[in-house]
Amino acid sequence: MTVEVWTFLFITLTFIVYLYIGWQSRVSESSGFYVAGQGVPAIANGAATAADWMSAASFISMAGLISFLGYDGSIYLLGWTGGYVLLALLLAPYLRKFGKYTVPDFVGDRYYSTTARIIAVICALFVSITYVAGQMRGVGIVFSRFLEVDVEVGVFIGMIIVAFFAVLGGMKGITWTQVAQYCVLIVAFLIPAIAISIKLTGWPVPQLGLVFSDIMPKLNQIQVDLGFSEYTQPFAHKSMLDMLFITIALMVGTAGLPHVIVRFYTVKNVRAARYSAGWALLFIAILYTTAPALATFARYNLIDSLHGKSIAEIHELDWATKWEATGLLGFDDKNGDGVIQMTNDTATSELAIDRDIIVLSTPEVAQLAPWVVALMAAGGLAAALSTAAGLLLVISSSIAHDIYFRLINPDADEKKRVLVGRIMVVAAVVVAGYFGVNPPGFVGEVVAFAFGLAAASFFPVILLGIFDRRANREGAIAGMIVGLGFTVFYIVGTTAQKIIPGVEEPFFGNWLFGISPQGIGTVGMMLNFAVSLVVSRLTPPPPAEVVAIIDSLRVPDHPGRAIILDEATE
Q1: Class of domain 3-302+373-438
Q2: Chain-wide mean pLDDT for the chain?
Q3: Has residue 49 got a pLDDT over 80?
Q4: pLDDT tens sequence across 204-232
Q5: Which of 442, 358, 425, 413 is nearest to 388 (CA)?
Q6: Do 222 and 303 touch, CB atoms closer than 8 A?
Q7: How far apart (Å, rounded) are the C-alpha atoms in residues 207 and 213?
Q8: Which of 120, 225, 234, 418 has the smallest number of CB atoms closer than 10 Å to its CB?
């Protein structure tokens, strides 16, 4: 069977499983819709968290970024994995003990402020919509190539699937669907990596093949011969300061992502939250330790397959012509010699390739079996859709729970609350679909923006809310406004041509101290911390009952003791 037939078969089968789980997990009560009834086993929640967190950026784009950037691409490995450890050890158990449904819930109650809650909702919407834009682009890319449909059609299909199990099952349906999606995505990532490792290095374990074979010295020499820097040369594409700031932004942004934090509310207790964090880290590590090896193999195979080949030879490659038809791969014989040359100068390089297709095209480039190629497509969809579902629920809960129920209609019954939540999921799907058709950048870039926004807005107020007894509502409000406002202003100003229709160049081209838009969230975070700490010290301290709640968060639970925080408003 052809790749397209295998792809259709795998995608159909996996989608049937996802839809069946969504139907079987349908809920009618708000606790099931928002936090899965807080009854998810730790290992299942670990798998769901891994799938929720390892988005299209991890599956599709990260290895592509490493393949292009070499050593400098390690920022994504260090930032995202380090951030998860930070979240699991420093924040998650305390947030679970606080016992609220959402991050805006925590912010509103901890800082005893309706205004703080509303600003937190705005921050959650900025982060989630930016993040989900990357997922929808990933869905469109997969469908565009492997089912040979327009990107718009692929995005529309993905919208229907996500909306179905998100609307029916809420967090409960999404959780169990994400467990299945983790199984699909990890198998889809490992099988090609193992097969290519055996083919290129003789080692069945990709990580060992990368370290103990001669593939890296070969690739370094090839890169130098073509005029590139060595693959392992540090700071060849980014400055040391920019790499540091991007890594920090990704790390603390991970610890502030609302769709990941909410996963720790779905387990029974604090102990289960810690265990699920450990399981999730293990499940994440399987993919993240494999990604550098797959990136290296992909770079080597791509150069070997395309550089120095004639246009006629390239067009004999079925995978090359099909990817070229998507517009994500292009060839331009600029010197007219009939041979494609890859160089480190975009002005003279005759190959144009979107880095988001590196992973998806790698099994085809390596001439693996058609079913392996199709499996990779199914894995990419699983990664994109699992994260998209979690983000859509965050958008839904931010509006339906934190705004409608908490502020507009606190007397709403369970049925009405769930109905509003489902309506918000549908509305969020429409917004996500728009950004899937009109993406502001490639997947990894867009997701990095989301992490920067989370770092600049949520991380400081959550950390101070747990560990600083003096942090008050005035400080939190000012900090979030300054941190988010500065970061959004910088990202929009330096990437306006990508995100605003009709704009052909950025509003200001010079980066602040050479810091890229992907790393500016670190500066936003520092501003947030500074403003929050200073304003909190210059204004009245939190009420005694709030201070007591803060203290109790860090004290082990005793039998029969519960933390209860009454609703408070300004």
Answers
A1: mainly alpha
A2: 83
A3: yes
A4: 999 999 999 999 999 999 989 888 889 99
A5: 425
A6: yes
A7: 10
A8: 225
Q: Is 437 strand, coil or helix?
A: helix
Of the candidates 468, 467, 465, 469, the residue with the CA atom closest to the CA atom of residue 457: 465
Q: 3 pLDDT band (50/70/90 cuts)?
A: confident
**Rounded Cα distance, 171 and 306, in Å:** 45
pLDDT on residue 245: 95
Place of tokens 């009709």: 502
Contacts 24+ apart (CB under 8 A), 299-302: 299/67, 299/219, 299/231, 300/200, 300/215, 300/218, 300/219, 300/222, 301/196, 301/200, 301/362, 301/365, 301/366, 302/67, 302/353, 302/358, 302/365
- Short-list 526, 537, 551, 525, CA closest to 467: 551
Residue 85: how many CB atoms within 10 A of its CB?
15
Q: How far apart are CA 551 and CA 151, in angstroms?
A: 52
What is the mean pLDDT of the segment spanning 131-143? 77
With 50 as the cut, is the pLDDT of residue 565 above it? no
- ∠ CA 251-254-259, nearest 5°, is 180
Q: Which two tokens stand for residue 414?
A: 């369970």
- pLDDT above 90: residue 304: no
Residues in the chain: 570
Distance between CA atoms of residues 272 and 280, nearest Å: 12
Spatial distance between the Cα atoms of 164 and 18, rounded to a whole number of angstroms: 10
**How far are the Cα atoms of 138, 316, 397, 454, 531 from residue 457, in angstroms, in the given order?**
26, 51, 18, 5, 12
Question: Do 67 and 299 form a contact (C-beta atoms < 8 A)?
Answer: yes
Beta bridge partners of 352: 330
| Residues β-bridged to residue 351 | 331
Distances (CA, A) of 454 to 207, 439, 461: 31, 19, 11
Measured between alpha carbons, how far is 78 from 75 in angstroms, rounded to an integer?
A: 5
**E-only strand ranges, 427-475:** none
The pair of three-digit structure tokens given for residue 59, joined into one six-digit string:
């599956």
Q: Enumerate the β-bridge partners of residue 310.
A: 339
Q: Let me know: does 102 contact 258? Beta carbons within 8 Å.
A: yes
Maximum Cα interatomic distance, the chain, rounded to a whole number of Å: 80
8 Å CB contact between 527 and 512: no
Phi-psi region at 94: left, alpha or beta (left = phi > 0; alpha = psi -120 to 50): alpha
Q: Delimit the CATH 1.20.1730.10 region(s) of the chain.
A: 3-302+373-438
Report the distance separating Cα 327 and Cα 344, nearest Å. 21
pLDDT of residue 188: 92
In this predicted model, what pLDDT tens digit does every residue of 144-202 receive, in sequence order? 777 777 777 878 877 777 777 666 656 666 778 788 889 999 999 999 999 999 999 99
**What are the two backbone dihedrals, phi and then psi, of residue 352, each rounded to the nearest 5 degrees?**
-120, 120
Predicted confidence (pLDDT) at residue 512 exceeds the cutoff of 80: yes
Which tokens go with 461? Answer: 């107020």
Contact 62, 291 (CB under 8 A): yes
The tokens describing 566, both together, are: 């009454």
Strand partners, 339: 310
